[in-house]
Structure formats: C-alpha cells, structure tokens
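Section 3.1: Structural characterization of target chains.
Under the original work plan, the team committed to producing a structural model for every single-chain target entering the pipeline before any wet-lab resources were allocated. The record below documents one such target. The sequence was received from the expression subgroup and is listed exactly as submitted; it comprises 68 residues.
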Amino acid sequence: MLMSEDEVRQQARKAGMTPREYCLREISEWKEMLHTVSDDYGGLDDDEFDELVEKEIDSFRAEQESED
C-alpha cells in the first residue's frame, strides 16, 4: 500500500535515513521480491529487468486510470 509523504518521512527518520534513501531501499527490496515471486524476470540482466519493470508499471498505471 502506498504511504503518504508524511509516513515516508516518519519511517525514514525511524530508520536513520533520508526519505530518498528510505524509498530507494524499499524499491530495492520490492525488486528483489519480484525476482523471487515471478518467473518472468529470471535470467534478465539489471538493465533488462529495469526496462521490463518500467513497462509493466506504465501498463498497470494505464489500466488503473482507464478503470477510474
């Protein structure tokens, strides 16, 4: 679930990080989880993985916007 900006800042402070560092850590952890739970990403190098994830995120957002 998406956090508000205030929640991100609060969690970052608790972790002793800047909000940017906190977000980057969270993104990194979610990317690792995506590798774990989906076979679609196996064998891809980092650039290919990032490109595929960005395309899928864009597609997901477009679907969400069309439903609204």
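The radius of gyration is 15 Å.
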